[in-house]
Amino acid sequence: MAEVVRQVATARIPTRFGEFIAHAFVATDLASAQLDSQQASSSNSREPLSGLGNQHRREHLACVLGDIGGENSAAQSDMAQEPVLVRVHSECITGDVLGSQRCDCGAQLEMAMEIIGTAGKGVLLYLRDHEGRGIGLEHKLRAYELQDAGHDTVDANLHQGLPIDARDYAIAAQILAHLGVTKVRLLTNNPVKLQSLTDMGITVSERVPLQTLPSIENADYLRTKRDKLGHLLDDAMTSFENAAVNAPISPLDDSDPESTRGNTALLAVSSLDISDTESHPFPATTHVAPVS
């Protein structure tokens, strides 16, 4: 069912990457939006159904840094608009909040904010209901159980009878349009996300890679995203795999209870100095020149 997006609140959010203006949006299906409108008219309340208890409303966040043009840019022709640096980020409680290393979500979120902060302006869209590529927190944790039993991130979804990726980016396109953003430089490794926004009328003038340093915990996950989902991660994974191959392997000392078990070559990778770009060809953070 088609959804309607409305902006409902705005507040200043100071971060270590700069001061963002956060705009809360709610997405409701058309029937619920009509009910909202009727109740607002009868009660003179701005948002009568806000808060807990309304399962028809989905909340999303747009964090804006600097002058992105806004409504004035929407009135300009596409040729006149300057592309805006944008990250469309899917909610990930385990990665974004808990710092889980099973995925690269938390690292990507922080890297995106740093890139936008360095550029001096841009938009971070934080989309709710995208947990586990849209399957929800419960099924995502069940997928983790399956991954620990040998399934990859794709097969773990399919094993539960769930789609590989259930995310919908229509809301992102609507929010960008509301902000007056029609042309973007998209921070992503996911070609599907890029194509989805393009199909919805957003001009993607450039894809800005967002490759984080793989870890022992998420290397298989990232490899599956590259090989099965087409994510553009060749630079990061090639560097990780080459480092693993070239790392020295020390014999295990079974008499030492503190001796590390497992692949010591991979363990050596985790201690690489990512600030050394000569031995590690991709930096921990991609820096974007400030936009004048």
Structural features, described:
- With 292 residues, the protein is α/β, with parallel strands linked by helices.
- Helix content is 38%, strand content 20%.
- The protein has twelve helices and seven strands.
- The protein has helices at 30-43, 70-74, 93-97, 105-119, 131-134, 137-148, 153-159, 170-178, 191-199, 219-229, 234-246, 264-270; strands at residues 3-15, 18-29, 57-65, 84-90, 122-127, 183-187, 203-208.
- Strands 1-2-3-5-4-6-7 form a seven-stranded mixed β-sheet, with helices on both faces.
- α6 (137-148) crosses α7 (153-159) and α11 crosses α12 (264-270).
- The protein is globular and about 50 Å long.
- The two termini are 42 Å apart.
